[in-house]
Specification:
Layout lengths: L1 H17 E5 L9 E5 L3 E6 H17 L17 H16 L7 E3 L15 H14 L3 E4 L8 E9 L2 E7 L5 E4 L1 H4 L7
Parallel strand pairs: 2-4
Antiparallel strand pairs: 1-6, 2-3, 3-5, 6-7, 7-8
């Protein structure tokens, strides 16, 4: 009986250890926001955060001669260095132009990789979101209740021998699945 109790306690602890609770940091005023909407949530973060990320990536990409492997995005996986450099510079210029205000994205809307509008920024937003969610610096609003979430869970998802992050509301609804944007999706027949 004692062995059964210890086994159950071990299993319970292992399940609670799989999910990490992320507490959202107190919201700072956002003057110019990026909005990313999924089926279950709306995520909001400051445009300055994306700008700072792009400035850092500009230096990194130059140092790596515009190698597409600098990014984990599956959208960039087939680009050569010239295409990667051109796409990044075009996106960077779009973001840098303060007159551009089209930074609202939805998973229900298709965006073209070489879009002439804010859609060109989408791969970079999806590259940045998992880190912002892990840091708790994104406002997450549950679309069903319209309530800002003070905390959510991060779970590791193994895919092809690598761990990717899955973020879920405390209700279990999915916020963001990193593997969707970082792993080639295969269709099985």
């Amino acid at each position: 009986m004692k062995a059964l109790f210890l086994l159950l306690a071990g299993v319970t602890l292992s399940f609670t250890g799989m999910a990490q609770v992320i507490k959202v940091k107190p919201a700072e005023p956002i003057t110019d926001s990026i909005v990313y909407q999924t089926e279950n949530v709306t995520m909001i973060f400051d445009r300055k955060t994306l700008y700072d990320y792009m400035v850092t990536m500009d230096t990194t990409l130059r140092g790596h001669k515009y190698d597409n492997k600098v990014f984990n995005s599956v959208q960039f996986s087939r680009m050569n260095a010239i295409d990667m450099g051109n796409h990044f510079r075009k996106a960077y210029c779009y973001l840098e132009d303060s007159t551009n205000k089209d930074f609202s994205y939805s998973t229900s809307k298709m965006n073209m990789l070489w879009a002439e509008d804010g859609g060109i920024m989408l791969p970079y937003v999806e590259e940045l979101l998992p880190d912002l969610l892990a840091a708790g610096t994104v406002r997450v609003i549950d679309r069903s209740t319209k309530a800002a979430q003070p905390a959510y869970k991060m779970i590791a998802e193994p895919v092809d021998g690598k761990n990717y992050r899955v973020f879920r509301l405390n209700s279990g609804k999915e916020i963001f699945r990193e593997s969707t944007f970082r792993v080639e999706q295969l269709t099985r027949r």
